[in-house]
Amino acid sequence: MHSGVQVAVISGRRSAAVTARMRELKIRHAVLGCADKVAALAGITQRLGIEPAACACLVDDTVDLPLMSKVGFAGAVADAHPLVLRAAHWVSGATGGHGAVRELTDEILRARHAV
């Protein structure tokens, strides 16, 4: 079990640029070209010894709705699909690709230290 925050990326897209970026950021848990994000989440959480309910996600499209229902905290980027925005526990002020991930990580770190 890990006591720190673990970062994972589960994406339906697969590209050399994304793969390089994951390597650059040292993100060890990356599932790219993924057709079943819920199964990918289950695999990652099993390896880490945590429950999906202990996880957060940040998403943008309706294909992510099943994933959102499995995690304990579902976030959406400001320009997400309207259905995703309604299903989210939290919505970033920033649009996708413009600081939304940073906003979410700041929120998580603030919450972890606000005990």
TL;DR?
This protein has helices at 16-24, 37-48, 65-68, 82-87, 100-113; strands at residues 8-10, 29-31, 56-59, 73-76, 90-91. The protein is 39% helix and 14% strand. It has 115 residues and is of the alpha/beta class.
The helix count comes to 5
- Please tell me what the overall shape is: globular
Secondary-structure element pattern, one letter each:
EHEHEHEHEH
Major beta sheet, strand line-up: 3-4-5
Helix content: 25-40%
Which spans have pLDDT < 50 for at least 5 consecutive residues? none
Give a count of the beta strands, DSSP E runs of length 2 or more. Answer: 5
Strand content: 5-15%
Describe this structure in words.
The chain has a 3-stranded parallel beta sheet. A two-stranded parallel ribbon has the order 1-2. It contains 5 helices and 5 strands. The chain has helices at residues 16-24, 37-48, 65-68, 82-87, 100-113, and strands at residues 8-10, 29-31, 56-59, 73-76, 90-91. It is globular, with a radius of gyration of 14 Å. It is of the alpha/beta class and 115 residues long.
List the helices and strands and how they pair.
Layout: E1 8-10, H1 16-24, E2 29-31, H2 37-48, E3 56-59, H3 65-68, E4 73-76, H4 82-87, E5 90-91, H5 100-113
Parallel strand pairs: 1-2, 3-4, 4-5
